[in-house]
Structure prediction request, 411 residues.
Amino acid sequence: MDFAYTERQLRQNRRYRDLGLRHARAGSGDGNGFDWQAWHAVTNAGIWRLPLLEHDPFEFIAAFEGLCCAMRSIGFAMAVANQATLIDAIQSLGTPEQRAALLPRLVGGEPGATAISESGTGSEIRALQTRLSVDGDGLRLDGHKYNISLAPHASLMLVAARYEADAKPQTAMVLIDGAMAGVARSAPQVTLGVRDLPIGELRFDAVRIDAAHLLGSPRDGLHALMRIASMNRAYFALMCANVVEPFLADALRHAAARRILGVAIDTHQHVQRRLVDVRMRAQRSRWMALASLDELLRDRAQALESCSIAKIVAAQDLTQSALDLLAIHGSDGYRSGALSTFVADALAMISAGGTEEMHRKNVFAQMQRNREPERAPVTQDARPGADATEKAADRGMLDRPSQASVSADVA
Prediction:
């Protein structure tokens, strides 16, 4: 496993780092309003074509890292991750007709949204209230989605819905246009942080759907949704590792210049410890995110667990690092400005991409699913065929639905 970037990947990293520096969030203000100028800039630079490079998926990852470590905006980085995840989903799961019709729109910069979460149930797939149902010779979509990034502006939406055409409920992934009849969206919601990322609600009232709107078959919808959610989690983890970089650089300069009784505060071990801890957390989160992406792109069985672990660790690391940086700047950091905005934005990662509790449930379910089943010793007076029955029971335990298979979130 070698995560050293190639020269071509490094060029992409430097290119998007430079672009990010040109569009970095200003040092003052509360960060309200999405940066459409930066969005058009990365679109024109070709970033949305990179997730389509099947021969080198890490070219986008290198570009994404370069952008994240320069933009000073968690909200913008989340939007980029979500768009790239949607592009990958259509590229890998869509029909030739869907790819031909939809990918040029997304590559051209039309914003997309992935709508899973619902009010009251979050991202618990078993509790989905949005329904896809048979209606005459077609289908209809009804329901409500909550806390969806770019929902107020998305022209293309991927919606997770419960489908009950057969006896066993299935998960349908529905591709719809934001201008379709029956689709309504809210204004951007007011949030504590990431105020530069428009987050809103979506409502679907008897939206007419046909087979061409389905991304894959509902029979495989749960598996498809888990892959989509896992990729998004890994991107979020990688973002958490990189967005702290410019703020750590600020803190290093501040600690060297700030003097108390004529002595720079960076000579004190407790200040050095905070700064080193920020660096250690970023490195830890980065390598875990890259490893989980590598497993996912290679279709490794443990990828779903790895992506959840990477998201948990990276979110914890980012929020703690934000508080450490705030402590180093003291009361100056608490004033309205770039650092206080960053701290509020970092707290969004507690729930964006799935809460820590949800991911821990996913990881535990995978642990149960993958453990070696215990076998009772076979006695001489065992009934004929008992061993075969025991093996079947073991298979049943291993094949039972995993809780990890029914929880997903793309914020």
User: Anything to note?
Assistant: The first helix runs from residue 7 to 22. Residues 25 and 72 are 6 Å apart (CA to CA). The chain has a mean pLDDT of 87. The first strand starts at residue 112 and ends at 115.
